């Protein structure tokens, strides 16, 4: 299909944060499958968990339960801090954001508030939430009664939220838009506005979740408790797995038959997730992510041609003075470093949470060399 541009390279194998293309060239993977390979490639803990599980039980329909799905649901509930939380498993971020839309309809309301520049998926419902006209326009008409307000602008958000609002959905940090960080009190004030009007606050942690920001979901710094959290990408440690976590009273909105998924909560993918989360906890990876951000920030923020380094943990946007991020990304690839040009003036990196400091330093050196060449 022509929905993707023709890839410039074909990757055939990987170990940790190192990948190899079909010609045998080696690269440092600073994108991690877009914030997905949280333990890198071929991590022995994930390989062992998946191998053991697929030899035991490979798939179970949603007529039955199985131990790994139950264990993972219990872990995720524990991470919310609310024992009343409930979990629905799917395979992708778009699917669980679609599930959030359906959950919000159970409030009896239909209006939704989302943010301009946001990304919540490409299926028709999740695309209705996505605040990017370039992705939306070819597929109009989308869902009605979705209001987009500027990200980080609490005054406009408060004007949009009222007694007819079913839900407000927001990313703690906008990833695809270029790793945009909101004001420090933004989530807290959104929580207050939603509570005042009885609207659900949905945190889309698809990109910020599973430890990437140095916190499990990315909103915890604000002190709030969302009504719904959606996670995917890193949740499966490289395998297709997503979850909608309904917190508090919202956990009782769905009734039997309201929603479902054939492959959601698959034994193999949940086994990978459980193993990855336990490994992250055991090895104190959240603290490592915070330290890695400080290293990248201090190394690159003053580089000529860099406007700012922003983000949290290992979700980082490097804003450039010029709109030449594609050129920078291309030259980094030529030097054996894979990054993403999130927008014309922003380089996005989201490597494995396990990436060693040595490989980060190689990236820093290569980035400085490229910036010296193009500026």
Could you walk me through the main structural features you see in this protein, from its secondary elements to its overall organization?
The protein is an alpha/beta fold. The protein has 2 domains: 11-30 and 284-374, Aspartate Aminotransferase, domain 1, CATH 3.90.1150; 45-282, Type I PLP-dependent aspartate aminotransferase-like (Major domain) (Aspartate Aminotransferase, domain 2, 3-Layer(aba) Sandwich), CATH 3.40.640. It has helices at 32-35, 44-56, 67-80, 93-105, 124-129, 133-136, 154-160, 186-197, 267-282, 285-300, 325-334, 357-374; strands spanning 11-15, 18-21, 26-29, 86-90, 111-116, 146-150, 165-170, 200-204, 228-231, 242-246, 306-312, 315-320, 337-338, 340-343, 346-349. Strands 4-10-9-8-7-5-6 form a 7-stranded mixed sheet, with helices on both faces. Strands 1-2-3-13 form a 4-stranded mixed sheet. Strand 7, helix 8 (186-197) and strand 8 form a beta-alpha-beta unit. Helix 2 (44-56) runs antiparallel to helix 9, helix 10 packs parallel to helix 12 (357-374) and helix 11 (325-334) crosses helix 12. The longest helix is centred in the last third of the chain and has 18 residues, at 357-374.
């Amino acid at each position: 299909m022509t929905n993707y541009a023709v890839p410039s390279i074909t990757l055939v194998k990987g170990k940790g944060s190192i990948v190899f293309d079909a010609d045998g060239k080696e690269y440092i993977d600073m994108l991690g499958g877009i914030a997905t390979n949280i333990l890198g490639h071929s991590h022995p803990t994930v390989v062992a968990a998946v191998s053991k599980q697929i030899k035991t039980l490979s798939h179970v329909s949603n007529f039955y339960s199985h131990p790994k799905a139950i264990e993972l649901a219990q872990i995720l509930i524990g991470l919310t801090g609310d024992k009343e939380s409930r979990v629905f498993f799917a395979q992708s971020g778009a699917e669980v954001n679609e599930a959030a839309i359906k959950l919000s309809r159970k409030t009896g309301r239909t209006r939704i508030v989302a943010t301009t520049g946001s990304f919540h998926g490409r299926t028709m419902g999740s695309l209705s939430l996505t605040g990017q006209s370039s992705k939306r326009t070819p597929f109009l008409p989308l869902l009605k009664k979705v209001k987009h307000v500027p990200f980080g602008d609490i005054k406009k958000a408060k004007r949009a939220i009222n007694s007819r609002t079913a839900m407000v959905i927001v990313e703690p940090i906008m990833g695809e838009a270029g790793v945009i960080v909101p004001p420090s009190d933004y989530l807290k004030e959104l929580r207050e506005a939603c509570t005042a009007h009885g609207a659900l606050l949905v945190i889309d942690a698809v990109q910020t979740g599973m430890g990437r920001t140095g916190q499990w979901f990315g909103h915890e710094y604000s002190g709030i408790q969302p009504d719904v959290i959606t996670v995917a990408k890193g949740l499966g440690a490289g395998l297709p797995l997503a979850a909608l976590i309904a917190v508090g009273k919202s956990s009782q909105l769905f009734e039997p038959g309201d929603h479902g998924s054939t492959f959601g909560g698959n034994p193999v993918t949940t086994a990978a997730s459980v193993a990855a989360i336990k490994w992250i906890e055991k090895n104190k990876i959240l603290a490592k992510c915070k330290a890695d951000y400080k290293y990248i920030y201090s190394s690159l923020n003053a580089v000529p041609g860099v406007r700012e380094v922003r983000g949290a943990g290992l979700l980082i946007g490097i804003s450039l003075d010029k709109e030449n991020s594609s050129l920078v990304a291309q030259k980094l690839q030529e030097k054996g470093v894979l990054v993403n040009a999130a927008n014309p003036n922003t380089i996005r990196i989201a490597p494995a949470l396990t990436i060693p400091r040595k490989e980060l330093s190689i990236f820093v050196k290569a980035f400085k060399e490229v910036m010296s060449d193009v500026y």
